[in-house]
Request: fold
Amino acid sequence: MSPAPLRILVCGGAGYIGSHMAKWLAAHGAEPVVLDNLSTGHREAVRFGPLVEADLLDPASLDAAFARGPFDAVMHFCARSLVGESVQLPYDYYGNNVVGTLNLLRAMQRHGVDRLVFSSTAAVFGEPVSERIDESHPKAPINPYGASKLMVERILADAAAAYGLRSVTLRYFNAAGASADGDIGEAHTPETHLIPNVLRAALGDGSRLKVFGDDWPTPDGTCVRDYIHVDDLAQAHWQALAYMDAHAGAHAFNLGNGRGFSVREVIAAAQAVGGREVPFDIAPRRAGDPAVLVASSALARSELGWTPRYPALPEIIETAWRWHCDPKF
Ligand code: UFG
Reply:
């Protein structure tokens, strides 16, 4: 007899990364149940399992969601996640990301679920002190978003010691791209991320891209980031489930391709992929942005067995371009 399929509660599964995760789980024989408050997610993105509408700030709604269990693990993608906004609205960021996660952890405890894959971020590191950021890099966030995620990382370490919670924290660098078949993709309102804004400007939606600063201490003066395909993030979460079978405790891995691209390089790559000009203007720097963020993901590769399928920026942009040419929501 084959084992029962894994049942995973995907918190934030109507959002950009969470919906790609739900798709990955369903494609690999697992059963995703999506928990989302639809504040920024899309009902149309929930196509790979049932949707339970619940809110991390409403514990009773969490109990109702866990009643749909039992679940083998929780994957936690719910968060406010915009660096610039977090500087303006710190209470919202600590409330949602820290208090909300504590509510989720308590609900997991009440319902006997002891495995969590947690979405963290490169923003926990702050300004890099080395060329590539590995897990031992100092953690000194320079914005409330990064600080809120680092607080949760600490909570998970304490929960492992006190309650035996197993967790894997995955620190994404810059998530990008869309499902290769074009059925789901990145759709934020308002859109603040670089690649979608570049592609919208290229498509001639009337917008001109704003490049936030060209006086950064980088080779061409624009910020450098490490773009990683959303399906490669999903792959790491899948591997994290197996990792938790074999490893108790709280673990953390950085996820990126290990190569940085400046804003100007992203614009050039998008122009090559789409065959269209990207109209842009230089604007002031955005609050909370570090100049350069590039990952070392050697640990994820060796410990999780993670191998990104999209190591090259043009292929990542190509999937995003297909989505933006024909968005389904
Ligand atoms: N940028 C522009 N114009 C835009 C949008 C972005 O110039 O219209 C620049 C930003 O200033 C930054 C780079 O492009 O230098 C990438 O910006 P994004 O907004 O796409 O991504 P961030 O680097 O700000 O944020 C992402 C995730 C966060 C994560 C962070 C790590 O959204 O969750 O990476 O710093 F924390």
About this structure: Residues 81, 83, 121-123, 145, 174, 192-194, 197, 209-212, 223, 225, 263, 286, 289, 293 surround UFG (CB under 6 Å).
